[in-house]
Amino acid sequence: MTQTGFEKVPARDRRRFPGISSRAYEHPADRSALVALRKLSGFDTVFKALSGLLPERSLRLLFLSDSVRVGETQFPHLYAMLRDACYILDLEKVPQMYVQQDPKPNAMCIGLDEPIIVVTTSLVELLDEEEMRAVVGHEVGHALSGHAVYRTILLFLTNLALKVAWIPLGNVAIMAIVTALREWFRKSELSADRAGLLVGQDLQASMRGLMKLAGGNHIHEMNVDAFLAQAEEYESSGDLRDSVLKIMNMLPRTHPFTTVRAAELKKWSENRDYQRIMDGHYPRREEDKDTSVSDSFRQSAAHYADSVRTSKDPLFKLVGDLAGGAADMGGKLRDKFTGAGSGSGSSSGSGPEAKGGATEQG
Asked: Which of 28, 171, 325, 346 falls between 20 and 30 A from 353, CA-CA?
């Protein structure tokens, strides 16, 4: 099988984005999920309590004692990528980064006061330089977006839920928050994938990395177009039962499925918003304080509405059809009771003027 589309990009200068706001690359679903999370009953109380209780210093000592800190003398190539990613996204303080022994390829950005980036040994061994650059950029994107604190609380609550699971109803409230946090975190991964692309500026490397996470280090046996076709098939195939199964499969996960991530990233790379960022036109951090939360929420709501409308998933199509049918019925009822369907000169709806309806009202 050929490796068409997998050619390595030669070393080159990458564009830098001074003062870029995380709003430039945040996925609309990320913002709306975070808004929904903050509205969850009890979340603010838990958030404030855990922010004060979780030992930040203990977290750092844990990685300092049992992982390898990346720097100029340890994993210098990763350190160079980290500094480069921070330079491109204009993150002033370079986060500490650790390599942790683990057979599962993974990376995360955690921390309450300051972000810490952790990558596993198997991930370092799995990815080539440009693929790893996208991952480092992904984690720096999490840091710039302020995701680390929520990720840390998610890890803590997940462990806590396991410990109190034996108590009747003991973990119901905790699991409600954990479920909401997971939903937000899955959406935040789509934002961070975009940040990784802005840092690496190599779509094929980002695609290869996601494919390796799904199928291992056998890239010569894979094809990017076929991989993306899986995402299309996943979204559109099956019936309502499959739609429910998709939801059940997704609930315990912290990351979206890799085929979906690849499809979402490719779609964004072809969007004019991405090209505008590459051309130097993007929201700046200095403008964040003037950003309207309500405007952001409206954009997120519009994104969800559009997602339901255009989705090929049977359940989402049903929701869209029901919503459309309800809107049509509501319009007919409104016209019936307000007389909007009648000619202005006749309340009975008879006569030639009434047959055409109120066309001038649009």
From this structure: 325
Say yes or no: 54 and 198 in one domain.
yes
| Spatial contact of 180 and 43, defined as CB atoms under 8 Å apart | yes
Alpha-carbon distance values, 70 to 87, 93, 116, 119 (Å)? 17, 15, 11, 10
Spell out, as residue ranges, where the chain has pLDDT lower than 50.
Answer: 1-10, 239-243, 246, 308, 311, 313-327, 329-330, 332-334, 336-337, 342-361
Give 287-321 pLDDT, tens digit per residue. 887 665 555 555 555 555 555 455 454 444 444 44
DSSP states of 180-237 as a string? HHHHHHHHHHHHHHHHHHHHH--HHHHHHHHHHHHH-S-GGG--HHHHHHHHHHHHHS
Q: Tell me, yes or no, whether 83 lies in a domain.
A: yes
Examine the residue annotation and report whether 139 is marked as an active-site residue of this protein: yes
Q: Which of 139, 183, 235, 264 is catalytic?
A: 139
pTM score: 0.74
The DSSP symbol for 88 reads H
Query: Considering its fold, how many domains does the chain have in total?
Result: 2
